[in-house]
């Protein structure tokens, strides 16, 4: 069943009218091709208008669309000869994290991604894409394997956050993510991350300390969900749309803040409307950045990654004036 949003209803109504005219034209003797063509033009113009002016909250809703392609879908469409690797060699295998080796246009790579499920049973198996500590330890084990054999690493980020349950905390959730942040920063092979849906908190960053961070245009990347932010700041979770706007967590916002490197275009309406086109756009971007690291030394790759994160954001110098109690604030770019 196709799932639509309230802001898409005008488009759906025109589509319904077009289908009715097509049925009438097919069953009768009337030629309604001109009316159908006019309606299709009107629909296409309306789609362009609506999808080019979506609010941050509307984009977040698209990022959470249950029919949106997940990591496994992109693996099938972008890579060849994917071989899944399982287990963290400590506790067990976490199905919320998908790992494996593959090829992209005859280039050997390692692929890691959060994986959600389509049905309730699949989501129970995948824990709704929320990884346990063993998921992050599995990811780091595979990253170290990639470093050993000099293979670039590609990660697909799509999680509302790391699993916050008691069992995860007992097995060292915070330590597992912190270890990944530390060890990823020093990897001697290039790491390219693509936020394909939700990029929630440390659960996302646990596989996202990368040389290049890319985002699909209808995805988000944030330290907290808009609902969580609204509950804390406004004491009202229903104000999530206001929080989403204030937080600057969409791809366009983060590109402007230089927190990411590129926004990847999606098919009109979202990636769930055309898996193949969305995957092709991601593949083009991946090949472009993988080419940049051909022949680059491991030391240079790690140094670039370090400087990338050091240069995100700004800091403030606060200086007291000699003749006044007023403070002068100077904003500067982050030092290297």
Textual characterization of the structure:
Strands 1, 2, 3, 4, 5, 6, 7 and 8 form an eight-stranded mixed beta sheet that branches. A two-stranded antiparallel sheet has the order 9-10. The chain has helices at residues 9-27, 33-51, 56-63, 71-78, 120-126, 133-148, 166-170, 173-184, 201-205, 226-233, 240-247, 251-256, 275-292, 298-310; strands at 80-84, 97-104, 107-114, 153-159, 191-200, 212-216, 220-222, 262-264, 314-320, 327-333. A hairpin with a 2-residue loop joins β2 and β3. Helices cover 45% and strands 19% of the residues. It folds into two domains: 6-53; 60-310, 2-enoyl-CoA Hydratase, Chain A, domain 1 (Alpha-Beta Complex). The chain is an alpha/beta fold and 336 residues long. It is built from 14 helices and ten strands.
For this entry, give a set of tags:
336 residues; alpha/beta; 2-enoyl-CoA Hydratase, Chain A, domain 1; 2 domains; 45% helix
Q: Strand content of the residues, in percent? A: 15-25%
Average predicted confidence as pLDDT: 90
Q: How helical, in percent, are the residues? A: 40-55%
Shape: globular
Structural class: alpha/beta
